[in-house]
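Final paragraph of the annual report: two paired records, presented back to back.
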Amino acid sequence: MPTPVKLSPARQPRILTWRRIVFGLAVAVFADGLQFVTGPLGWIGGDQVIDVIAMLLTVWALGFHLLLLPTFVMELIPGVDELPTWTACVIAVIVLRKRAQRAAERESAAGRIAVPPQADPQRRSLQ
């Protein structure tokens, strides 16, 4: 039987609190709005700076998720950055993480597995 792979703390999914969700959505909406306001031409390199900052802040708030990578690449394509891709991606990541959190809580309540201390849903801090 293979041993389970332990993820480093930086790679483990973050427990979503309402503050993390609001911050992640605010970053995404601000990044998409700023790119929309700058227009299709944008600044020379400015759109890429916005994307890097949005990616870093989103990963900090919500934790890394594979959906963030295609979104980051799509934002580099001219014209596509006019779409609200960051907002859509952040909403998708939130939905997927909340679904996984609920499943873990149900399994924990059933007594099958213990929820690790860092995954305690009662914690409301930004960590």
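The closing record of the year follows.
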Amino acid sequence: MTYSPPQATNRSTHHEHGDTLIEVLIAVVIIAIAAAALLGGLTTALTASGEHKGLSVDDTLLKSYAEAAKQQIEISQSVAFTQCTPSTYAIAYTVPAQFSTYTVAAQSVTFWNSGSKSFSTTCNHVKPDEGIQLITVTATAPQAAGGYTQTLSFVVRDPNYET
């Protein structure tokens, strides 16, 4: 005697030969959503990379300008330290050719006031700025690189100041 398993009466006897249209459409929608998410992430990464480059170039130019100014005022004295200077110094600085669309300039000079122990826009002519000044410099990226403006302040000392 041979054993044969019971046959289900409600099962279909034919086999499916492919996917239904609904299954294919659902798969296409899932793939499209994943592709859109990846494309959005890539776009965000590229934008952030461009912004970072603009900011890092601004930062580098600011630091280069500050070093050039300190060197010219304090060390070589090719630009003379001026007590109670009215606006700013004329620093000889050329932006590197590959960044010629960026601008870097000194914006202001403030003077040390030993009485208030702070920098001030007005100079004490009785005891002029005590050989210490705060120079503020800005660097601006072109619109193509984000149009960012950064500011850096640094202190210069009069190399000839005697206490």
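The radius of gyration is 34 Å. This concludes the annual technical report; the extension proposal builds directly on these records.
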